[in-house]
Write a structure and sequence with these properties.
single chain, about 45 residues, alpha+beta, two-stranded antiparallel sheet, about 25% strand, rod-shaped
C-alpha cells in the first residue's frame, strides 16, 4: 500500500468513524424493551 493510499484510508476512518456493535446489557438504561439484541453505534 502506498503512503498516499494509507493516508486516504486513515482520513476516511477519522472522518466516517468505525461502526461497531455493542450488546445491550441490563445495566444499560433504555426507555423500553428492545427487539434488537445489538445496537450499532458509530465510534468517533
Amino acid at each position: 500500500m502506498s503512503l498516499e493510499a494509507a493516508d486516504r484510508e486513515v482520513y476516511l476512518l477519522h472522518k466516517e468513524g468505525i461502526k461497531v456493535s455493542v450488546p445491550e446489557t441490563e445495566s444499560t438504561p433504555h426507555p423500553g424493551p428492545s427487539n434488537e439484541p445489538f445496537v450499532t453505534r458509530n465510534a468517533r
